[in-house]
Specification:
The complex is a heterodimer of chains A (115) and B (431). Chain A is of the alpha/beta class and 115 residues long. Chain A has helices spanning 29-41, 59-74, 86-95, 107-114; strands at 5-12, 15-24, 47-57, 79-82, 103-104. Chain A has a single domain (5-114), classed as Transcription Regulator spoIIAA. In chain A, helix 1 links the parallel strand 2 and strand 3 (47-57). Chain B is an alpha/beta fold and 431 residues long. A seven-stranded parallel beta sheet of chain B has the order 3-2-1-4-5-6-7, sandwiched between helices. In chain B, strands 10-9-8-11-12-13 form a six-stranded parallel beta sheet, sandwiched between helices. In chain B, helix 6 (140-147) packs parallel to helix 7 (165-177). The two termini of chain B are 41 Å apart. Classes of the chains: A alpha/beta (115), B alpha/beta (431).
Chain lengths: 115, 431
C-alpha cells in the first residue's frame, strides 16, 4: 500500500516545525496526530505545521489538527499553520477552521506569531 | 495474520469521522475551545432530495456519499434527506431521512417543499434523473421546485443529447428555477448550453466522487482471492441490458487464446427495477452465451450487493476494468469513476462520460458492441506492462481530485456561494 504522507520534524530555535508532504487523510492522519502528541507531551506546546507540500487534506486530517489543538491549548500553547496551496486553504476557509488556526503563507510569519 | 486478513486490511477503506468525533469529545473535555470552534465553523444545513439507500440505485448511493462526505466537514450542521420512494414500499431508512416523497403522489412533492420551506434548512441539493421522479419523464419534480422557497442546486445524472420535447422542457424549467445545475463532466455543460439554452452562469462542473482508496498491488490481492495466476478483467454495477456485458463475454475466447487463465468477473446484482419487469432474463441470456462458448471457468458472476470494501478488493485485484455500455448519451458512471479511483487500467465504449474522463492516457476507448475491439484492446493492455502501469497511474492521479473528501469541499463551496448570493441569513445552530 502506498502511504502517501511524509512527516518530518525539525526545529527553528525552540519552535518545533512539523513538515508534512503528501496527503493527510483517513489512512495517514493517525501518524500525524502521533507526531503532534509526541512533541506536545515532550514539552513543546507551540507547534508550527508546515503544509507547503500537502496535496490533500480530508476531515480526518482536520480532526487530527483539532485534537492536536486541544492538547496544545491544555499545555498553554497554540498551533499555527503554514500553507500557500489555495486548494488546502479553501478547505480551511470553507469549513471555518481558518478562524481557529492562524494560517500564513510563509514560515517566517508563522514563526513571528508563535515566538 | 492470514493472507486474507492482510489483504482485507490493505483494501479496507477507513471511515473518516475524526473531525466530527473530535468536536464531540471537546464538548465534554474543553468547553471553551468547543464554543470557540462552534462559533467559527461553517453551519450550512443542506437537504438532499433523492432516492436513498436501502433503495438500490446508483443515484441513491451517490446521494448518501455526497451527504455523508459534506457532513464530515460540518459537525455543527444537521443534514436532511428527503427520500423519493415508490408507494407501498417500506424502506428501513436511516434517521437522516426526515421526509419521504411518494414517487407517484403529486401532492407529496408540494408537501415536501412546504416541509423544507418551514424548516431551518438553508439549501436543497436535488439529484436528478428523469426516472426517479413521478409523472411523465419525472415531471412532478417541477411541482416541487415551483413550491420550494429555498435555493436549489440540481445535480444532473442524465443530460440527453436528443431529449424528447417533454424531457427538454423539464430540464429547461429546472434550469430556470434552480440556482445552479451541477454536471459531472464538461461535456454535460456543453450539451446544456447548446441543446437546452441554460444560462451558462448557472452551470458548474463537479466530478463524480470516488472512494478514498490507496493503491495496492493487484498481485497481492489476487492471492487472497485465490486467483493468483489469473488475469482479471472486471465490470461492476447494477446489471441491465444497457451494460453490454455480452460483448466482453464474446471477447473472452480470443483473449483466452493468448491468456488461457484470464477470467471475467461480473460484479453486482441485476438492477431491482429491471428484475421487477423482466426478472433475470438478461443474466440468463448471458449465462446461455457463456454455456454456448464453454466459458464456465472463465466468466464468474457475483450476483449480490457488494460492500464498499469488497468492491474495492475486487477492483484492486483487477488487471483490466471494462465498461462496455451501449448508450452514447451516458453522462455519468459511478462504476467507471470508482475504477479510476482505484487506479485501474480501464477500457470503455465511448459514451460521453467515458470519452472525457479517459482522455489524455487515462484509459482506452473501445468500439460499441464489438467483441473484437474488446479482445484486441484487453490483449494489448495485458501484453504491455508499461502501458498498463501508465494507464493505472494516470487514472489514479486524475481521480484523486475526485475523492469524496475533495468533492464534498466543492459542494460546500458551491452551497456557500449560492447562499451568499441569495443573502440567506443563518441562525446560530446547536450541536
Amino acid at each position: 500500500m502506498e502511504m502517501d504522507l511524509v512527516i518530518n520534524v525539525r526545529r527553528n530555535g525552540a519552535v518545533p516545525i512539523i513538515d508534512l508532504s503528501g496527503e493527510v487523510d483517513a489512512y495517514t492522519s493517525a501518524r500525524f496526530r502521533e507526531a503532534m502528541v509526541e512533541l506536545i507531551d515532550g514539552g513543546s506546546a507551540n507547534l508550527i505545521i508546515s503544509m507547503l507540500k500537502v496535496d490533500y487534506i480530508d476531515s480526518s486530517g482536520l480532526g487530527a489538527l483539532v485534537g492536536g489543538l486541544k492538547r496544545s491549548t491544555e499545555n498553554g500553547g497554540r498551533i499555527v499553520i503554514v500553507c500557500d496551496n489555495p486548494q488546502i486553504r479553501k478547505v480551511f476557509e470553507i469549513t471555518g477552521l481558518e478562524k481557529v488556526f492562524p494560517i500564513f503563507e510563509a514560515e517566517v510569519d508563522a514563526l513571528g506569531m508563535i515566538s | 495474520m492470514s493472507e486474507t486478513d492482510k489483504v482485507a486490511d490493505m483494501t479496507f477503506v477507513p471511515e473518516e469521522f475524526a473531525l466530527r468525533d473530535e468536536v464531540r469529545w471537546l464538548k465534554s473535555e474543553d468547553l471553551n475551545l468547543f464554543s470557540f470552534i462552534r462559533q467559527s465553523m461553517n453551519k450550512i444545513e443542506p437537504a438532499y432530495v433523492s432516492t436513498y439507500p436501502p433503495s438500490e440505485c446508483g443515484i441513491a448511493t451517490f446521494c448518501k456519499d455526497v451527504a455523508t462526505s459534506v457532513a464530515k466537514y460540518t459537525p455543527f450542521s444537521k443534514p436532511t434527506i428527503v427520500a423519493i420512494k415508490r408507494e407501498h414500499e417500506i424502506e428501513p431508512y436511516e434517521r437522516v431521512v426526515r421526509y419521504q416523497i411518494l414517487k407517484e403522489d403529486r401532492q407529496s412533492y408540494l408537501d415536501a417543499a412546504k416541509y423544507i420551506n418551514d424548516s431551518s434548512i438553508d439549501i436543497v441539493n436535488l439529484q436528478h434523473e428523469y426516472g426517479i421522479f413521478g409523472g411523465d419523464d419525472g415531471e412532478y419534480v417541477l411541482d416541487f421546485l415551483h413550491a420550494l422557497k429555498k435555493p436549489a442546486v440540481v445535480t444532473l445524472h442524465t443530460v440527453l443529447h436528443s431529449p424528447s420535447p417533454n424531457q427538454k422542457r423539464i430540464t429547461q424549467e429546472m434550469g430556470k428555477m434552480c440556482e445552479v445545475m451541477v454536471v459531472m463532466v464538461k461535456t454535460g455543460r456543453n450539451i446544456l448550453l447548446d441543446g437546452y439554452s441554460v444560462d451558462p452562469a448557472k452551470i458548474t462542473v463537479i466530478p463524480h466522487g470516488v472512494p478514498n482508496v490507496h493503491r495496492v498491488a493487484s498481485s497481492t490481492v489476487k492471492r487472497a482471492l485465490g486467483m493468483a495466476d489469473r488475469q482479471i478483467i472486471s465490470t461492476f454495477g447494477l446489471i441491465n441490458r444497457g451494460k453490454g456485458i455480452e460483448y466482453v463475454i464474446k471477447a473472452m475466447p480470443k483473449i483466452l487464446e493468448k491468456y488461457p487463465n484470464a477470467i471475467y468477473l461480473v460484479l453486482g446484482e441485476t438492477h431491482p427495477g429491471v428484475r421487477k419487469h423482466e426478472g433475470e432474463s438478461y443474466r440468463n441470456m448471458l449465462t446461455e452465451i457463456i454455456s454456448e462458448l464453454g466459458l464456465e471457468e472463465h466468466v464468474r458472476f457475483n450476483n449480490r450487493f457488494l460492500s464498499l470494501s469488497e468492491l474495492v478488493r475486487y477492483l484492486c485485484a483487477t488487471d483490466v476494468y471494462v465498461t462496455p455500455y451501449l448508450s452514447k448519451d451516458q453522462i455519468s458512471s459511478g462504476t467507471l469513476a470508482y475504477a479510476l479511483g482505484c487506479g485501474k487500467a480501464t477500457l470503455s465504449t465511448p459514451y460521453l462520460y467515458a470519452e472525457e474522463v479517459l482522455a489524455d492516457g487515462r484509459g482506452i476507448l473501445i468500439d460499441f458492441q464489438s467483441p473484437e475491439s474488446v479482445s484486441d484492446t484487453v490483449i494489448k493492455v495485458l501484453d504491455d506492462k508499461d502501458l498498463r502501469e501508465s494507464l493505472e497511474s494516470a487514472a489514479y492521479h486524475y481521480a484523486r481530485r475526485a475523492a469524496w473528501f475533495n468533492v464534498a469541499i466543492s459542494y460546500l463551496d458551491l452551497f456557500d456561494r449560492v447562499l451568499r448570493r441569495s443573502g440567506v441569513i443563518k441562525e446560530e445552530p446547536t450541536l
